[in-house]
Amino acid sequence: MVTRPRKTPAATLVMGVCGTGKSTIARALAERRGGVFLDADDYHPLANRDHMAAGKPLSDEMRWDWLDAVANAVAEASETGPVNFACSALKHVYRDRLRAHLGPMKIVCLTGSRALIAARMGARQDHFMPVDLLESQLEILELPGPDEAALICDVAQAPEQILGTICRAQEGADCSGTGA
User: Fold this and answer.
1) What is the mean pLDDT of residues 52-69?
2) pLDDT tens digit string along 119-178?
3) What DSSP line would sit under 41-105, residue for residue?
4) With contact defined as beta carbons under 8 Å apart, do 139 and 48 qualify?
5) Quick one: 39 exposed, middle or buried, by C-beta within 10 A (0-12, 13-18, 19+)?
6) Beta-ladder partners of 173
7) What GO CC terms are in its UniProt record (predicted)?
8) What's the chain's average pLDDT?
9) Structural domain boundaries in the chain
């Protein structure tokens, strides 16, 4: 499936391994900016969810259609304004796939200690991703390189601190909390 890349960066990808708070931060950015929030987890086919719920990591082949569905949803939503989306996007090639559909996008990468992330995952209720999969995600994680100009944020900080860092780094972004 091929879509035309956007000419302007209307999307902010909030990426990282499971349990880093991608959805929390992307949702808060959308609320502050008046944009749209999308969670890539909502676009996983049932087979992917069942696979992960069984404690099995996804293969690259299992991710391609999912990434395409996420990119298409972001592209459609960006027709009405900025989109902030939470997606693991662990490998550079996954982010390249998203960029092939969307064009340039801002990237915020959430990182933290293995212990902190595992504790957060253990505290979550009703999520399909078991804590057992954290190790496989950390193994394949490719932090964004200089070519991606990503903002790296440590999740040991409170969400408000992370949001402040993002807003300061993305000059011109409306993070006033007014939703305007």
Assistant:
1) 91
2) 776 655 665 555 677 778 888 899 999 999 899 999 999 999 999 999 888 865 556 554
3) GGG--HHHHHHHHTT-PPPHHHHHHHHHHHHHHHHHHTTSS-EEEE----SHHHHHHHHHHH-S-
4) no
5) middle
6) none
7) cytoplasm
8) 85
9) 11-169
